[in-house]
Amino acid sequence: MTDRAPQPVDRQLPTEESRDLLALVREIAQREIRPKAAEEEDSGRFPREVFTLLSEAGLLGLPYPGEFGGGEQPYEVYLQVLEELAAARLTVGLGVSVHSLACHGLAGYGTEEQQSAHLPAMLGGGLLGAYCLSEPAAGSDAASLTTKAVRDGDDWIITGTKAWITHGGVADFYTVLARTGAEGPKGITAFLVPGDVEGLTAAVPEKKMGMKGSPTAQLHFDGVRVPDARRIGEEGQGFSIALAALDAGRLGIAACAIGVAQAALDEALTYALDRKQFGHPIADFQGLRFMLADMATKIEAGRALYLAAARLRDAGKPFSRQAAMAKLFCTDAAMAVTTDAVQVLGGYGYTADFPVERLMREAKVLQIVEGTNQIQRMVIARHLAGPETR
Q1: Could you tell me which of 46, 80, 220, 333 has the fewest CB atoms within 10 Å of its CB?
Q2: SS3 at position 276
């Protein structure tokens, strides 16, 4: 192989601590995640031990308060950690993002008693979370969800089905959105549900195009009893909590997308420098050089976009529009870059002997999860032109 292999991303980080953190993440990714990624994705094996290791290293609670076991890192640092993890294996990077999403409601809207009781274990105690908003008939139109929570004394009884749940069946806790009132967004409440509670079962995981190592399953709530002490926020506040979490979660997806794209570019560049045709490395031919240049430009633009949105969030400023833009652009860029990476490798790119075909399959889901890119365009347009008048 060529000795001109791509170098690690030159990151602009705010502190020496954050630079050390990224170095640690790269070390873990290279030693514990990347070597097993292809084999375990092919076999559909979920790497629970990796998430345990990340929890022990303090990497599952990076953007949350230190008093509850979090890392107190700004979002611009946390997202770059996600990017590095996703570049090594999307199942891990996206899994950390989903876990963070599942912690968001309690960290942002829980009482002090709730936070003290649950957050330490969620952020650094080895637990893994999942987020339950979508349903079989309520995806993009999440406010139409029908899973019900009915008050029974000091408890709530939850009945219904959630769909497309990352970590469904393997998570230790679920943030669940359920209907406690009238139809529409104001009748929804959030709950923190233990993964082993009676009446909660998971269906067989979906058979997916990519991310086969990450279980995605329906969850069935058959009279699940949850104490009111596990209600997050006020009754009817659940949809607002969900939207706030999704704004942050979309930045996580954007960062993961750039990680996947960067991994694909690295593979394509290494191959193009090493592969010779007509007596020259194929990287010498202008057609491929221009493809590589375009791929790198998309990645740099996407990284700058998600970091700009993260810095708004860190400054306490509105960032919903920028989060939608970042999710839209970065995931479209990942799909384009991974497709071009397959093309650079030619026939080899279409085989499982090289990782670019897997990266291409994985990139596709990022255009769908946490709001399809069509929904992102609707969000952006509403910020620009106001709500639709029809």
Answers
A1: 220
A2: strand
CA distance 379 to 374: 9
Number of C-beta neighbours around residue 245 at 10 A:
25
Residues 220, 161 contacting (CB under 8 angstroms): yes
**How far from each other are the two terminal CA atoms of the chain, in whole angstroms?**
59
pLDDT digits (tens, 9 = 90+) for 230-241: 999 999 999 999
Contact 238, 178 (CB under 8 A): yes
Mean pLDDT confidence for 113-124: 97
370 catalytic per annotation: yes
CB distance 275 to 354 below 8 Å: no
Please answer whether residues 327 and 373 qualify as being in contact, where contact means their C-beta atoms are separated by less than 8 angstroms: yes
Closest CA to 302 of 256, 363, 370, 357: 256
Angle value at C-alpha 299, between 60 and 55, nearest 5 degrees: 10
Q: Which pLDDT does position 389 carry in this prediction? A: 83
State the chain's mean pLDDT as an integer.
96
pLDDT tens for 133-163 read: 999 999 889 899 999 999 999 999 999 999 9
DSSP symbol at 206:
P
**Rounded CA gap, 317 and 319, in Å?**
6
What is each CA distance from 339 to 253, 280, 295, in whole angstroms?
Answer: 19, 24, 10
CB of 163 within 8 A of CB of 192?
no
Query: Token pair 């008939």 is at which residue?
Result: 137
Distance CA 184, CA 297 (A): 42
Is residue 156 packed enough to be buried (19+ CB in 10 Å), middle (13-18) or exposed (0-12)? buried
The token pair that represents 6 in the structure block: 């791509």
From the candidates 40, 357, 362, 370, give the one annotated as an active-site residue: 370
Residue-wise pLDDT for 276-316, tens only, equals: 999 999 999 999 999 999 999 999 999 999 999 999 999 99
Model pLDDT, residue 6? 58
Report the predicted TM-score, pTM, of the whole model to 2 decimal places.
0.96
